[in-house]
């Protein structure tokens, strides 16, 4: 061994050691690559969809068209439970939170009526009581979510037995839960959490925590509870690793044993999202009775009740890259347990992968140093092929998850480094040889010396943004009556026309999401009056859409107009390049983005096409705004005060708007005071609005049903811009 070879081996072994230590530390990038690899395996060989007794009763778009917007009154859910129970459902599990009283209950609705007799009020039906009575004595499992507030813990309807050390610190932590209505809590046969990936930074649901823990008590998830209730079991049996505390290896529920991670998580082995898994809730609740195929699907099945409606925001991403309703993942977890097709990553997998890096790296260093580059390359390719073949075979035939990328990546780095060193040393030796012997040897001989081995033994930032979401109303109905290419043509015409106004007002188009637009202002460059520019863009979109409808630009025919909803919010968000190293987008994320999206959704409830938050309204002074009340947006603990955008600064300065603004102020004051004058004020406001802005008619029509949105808020004289 020459001195150069010895140095090369030492350098190679140091690199191998560094890569081994790096893999032992398991940084985020390696974890991401490993998870993406396992996702790809599932895409190549997804779990087959078997005919198992598991169904999803889906509150889909068709159901909402039939029975009205969500949330439904709970007496309707009671009817759903009765129908499913009569059809022989083994279990009915709700992937729905029942934390608040039913606002559609007659008793709740009439409570706000001035002068109602309390005795009469008590005799009115209460939908929560009706729902509680419907689930009593039936195999119904209710769900609870995680909360950052309060100290509520749901009751646990089952017992836990352990083998090995106690596992209370193994599962993800439960600090607080969303409370269940007491009458529902006591009558449910089981209660399980519905969280699919709490605390995970990834949008892809790869593992599901079957248990949560508060340090003293374990809480099962919805799928686990549904399976327990279906079998009539009363206890979960948890197996832990011998002499290793806070570790779970297996959970037994009745006749089924489930291998889990040390934290009690189930690796999801998902199948294609097929229609066979779903039953529309509208078909179950059909007035003429459920069809025979629905009865056959429900009978003897574990039934999960949830929603696939896009507006209800319960859409998750699977390892197959599909966006599916969250409830279907609970159903898939039970299917996986029933089928016995599990994925697992053994405790010793980490050690095996680390050892493989050390061994393969050492072999590559030796091969690259002492044999020809071609042989070394062949060894590297052999190691790569062996790692891929072993990992794929283990997945396909045993459901074992071994990472092939870490050994392959480490082998590539080692081979590249060792080869680079070898060529650097060779080039240095050739330069020495040529310099030393160039005067003494013929060119042909010098070439031979140079090419004969050992012939001569020589020594993303945070900033304030204004976010806009635009969405087409009734897009599902529009797309149902159009051919696919016509849907594309419609969207291209509409989105092209609307998005121009974002660019014209110095905004940034973030993305098109189906029939929606997301845009933001004040990034990547500063825009001083970004809230006002966003409002101007929204007003321009309104005018453009009106022109397109007037000239029938979409070809739908006379009277068939297209409507949109626009939500705008201003606040702090994180903006920058996001995604993978080879494919990224310049985008914004944060709570401000979520609030803007939910304000857009609130347009449906308010009955107006452009709504802005109080934060935006306060910075877009001079525009014609009307207070729309304070609405509870999904995911927000407090209500959000919203304003409808009637027009620009010119309209705001007109006498007509000043008169409407004054009448609107008195109407809002009357609503806050629950004054009988509110009806008179409402009529006056409608009269003023009809002459000024016909689009306000629906806004005022719905205000009569939204009195609660103005209770407990500041008086109208404190409104923005007044």
TrEMBL record:
GO terms for biological process: cyclic nucleotide biosynthetic process; intracellular signal transduction. Keywords: Membrane, Transmembrane, Transmembrane helix. PROSITE patterns: GUANYLATE_CYCLASE_2. Pfam families: CHASE2, Guanylate_cyc. It comes from the Bacteria. Residues 466-600 form the Guanylate cyclase domain. Gene3D superfamilies: Nucleotide cyclase. GO terms for molecular function: adenylate cyclase activity. The chain crosses the membrane at residues 348-367, 374-399, 405-425. This is Adenylate cyclase. The lineage of its organism: Bacteria, Pseudomonadati, Pseudomonadota, Alphaproteobacteria, Hyphomicrobiales.
């Amino acid at each position: 061994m020459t001195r150069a070879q010895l140095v090369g081996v030492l350098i190679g072994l140091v690199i191998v050691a560094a890569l081994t230590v790096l893999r032992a530390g398991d940084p985020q990038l390696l974890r991401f690559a490993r998870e993406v690899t396992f996702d790809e395996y599932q895409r190549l060989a997804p779990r087959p969809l078997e005919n198992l007794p598991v169904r999803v009763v889906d509150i889909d778009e068709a159901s909402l068209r039939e029975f009205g917007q969500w949330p439904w009154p709970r007496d309707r859910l009671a009817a759903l439970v009765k129908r499913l129970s009569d059809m022989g459902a083994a279990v009915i599990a709700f992937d729905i939170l029942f934390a608040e009283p039913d606002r559609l209950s007659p008793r709740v609705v009439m409570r706000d009526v001035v002068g109602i007799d309390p005795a009469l009020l008590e005799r009115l039906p209460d939908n929560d009581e009706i729902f509680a009575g419907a689930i009593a004595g039936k195999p119904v499992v209710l769900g609870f979510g995680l909360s950052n507030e309060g100290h509520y813990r749901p009751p646990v309807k089952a017992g836990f037995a352990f083998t090995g050390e106690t596992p209370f610190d193994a599962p993800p932590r439960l600090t607080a839960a969303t409370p269940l209505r007491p009458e529902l809590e006591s009558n449910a046969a089981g209660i399980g959490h519905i969280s699919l990936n709490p605390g995970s930074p990834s949008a892809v649901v790869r593992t599901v925590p079957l248990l949560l823990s508060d340090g003293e008590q374990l809480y099962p998830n919805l799928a686990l509870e549904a399976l327990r209730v279906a079998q009539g079991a009363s206890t979960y049996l948890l197996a832990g690793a011998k002499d290793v505390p806070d570790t779970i290896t297996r959970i037994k529920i009745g006749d089924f044993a489930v291998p889990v991670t040390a934290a009690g998580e189930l690796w999801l082995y998902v199948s294609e999202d097929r229609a066979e898994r779903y039953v529309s809730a509208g078909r179950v609740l059909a007035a003429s009775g459920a069809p025979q195929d629905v009865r056959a699907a429900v009978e003897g099945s574990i039934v999960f009740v949830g929603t696939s409606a896009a507006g209800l925001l319960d859409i998750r991403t699977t390892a197959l890259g599909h966006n599916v309703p969250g409830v279907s993942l609970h159903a898939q977890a039970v299917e996986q347990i029933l089928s016995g097709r599990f994925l697992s990553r053994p405790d010793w997998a980490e050690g095996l992968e680390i050892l493989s890096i050390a061994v393969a790296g050492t072999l590559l260093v030796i091969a690259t140093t002492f044999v020809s580059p071609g042989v070394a390359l062949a060894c590297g390719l052999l190691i790569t092929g062996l790692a891929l073949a072993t990992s794929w075979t283990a997945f396909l035939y045993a459901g074992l998850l071994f990472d092939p990328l870490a050994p392959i990546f480490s082998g590539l780095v080692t081979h590249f480094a060792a080869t680079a060193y070898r060529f650097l040393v060779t080039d240095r030796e050739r330069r020495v040889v040529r310099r030393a012997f160039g005067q003494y040897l013929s060119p042909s001989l010098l070439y031979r010396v140079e090419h004969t081995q050992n012939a001569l033994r020589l020594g993303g930032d945070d900033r304030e943004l204004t976010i806009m979401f635009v969405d087409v109303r009734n897009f599902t109905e529009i797309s149902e009556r159009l051919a696919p290419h016509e849907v594309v043509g419609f969207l291209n015409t509409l989105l092209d026309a609307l998005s121009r106004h974002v660019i014209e007002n110095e905004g940034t188009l973030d993305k098109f999401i189906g029939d929606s637009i997301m845009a933001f202002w004040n990034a990547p460059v500063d825009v001083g009056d970004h809230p006002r520019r966003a409002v101007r863009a929204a007003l321009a979109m309104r005018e453009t859409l009106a022109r397109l409808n007037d000239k029938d630009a979409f070809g739908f025919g006379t009277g068939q107009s297209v409507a949109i909803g626009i939500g705008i919010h201003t606040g702090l968000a994180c903006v920058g390049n996001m995604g993978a190293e080879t494919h990224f987008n310049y985008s914004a994320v944060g709570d401000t983005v979520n609030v803007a999206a939910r304000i857009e959704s609130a347009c449906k409830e308010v009955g107006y096409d452009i709504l802005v938050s109080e934060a935006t309204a306060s910075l877009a002074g001079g525009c014609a705004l009307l207070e729309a009340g304070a609405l509870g947006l999904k995911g927000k603990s407090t209500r959000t005060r919203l304003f409808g955008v009637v027009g620009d600064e010119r309209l705001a300065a007109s006498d007509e708007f000043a008169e409407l603004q004054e009448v609107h102020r008195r109407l809002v004051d009357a609503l806050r005071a629950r004054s009988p004058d509110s009806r008179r004020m409402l009529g006056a406001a409608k009269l003023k609005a009809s002459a000024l802005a016909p689009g306000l008619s629906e806004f005022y029509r719905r205000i009569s049903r939204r009195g609660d949105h103005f209770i407990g808020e500041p008086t109208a004289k404190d409104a923005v811009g007044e």
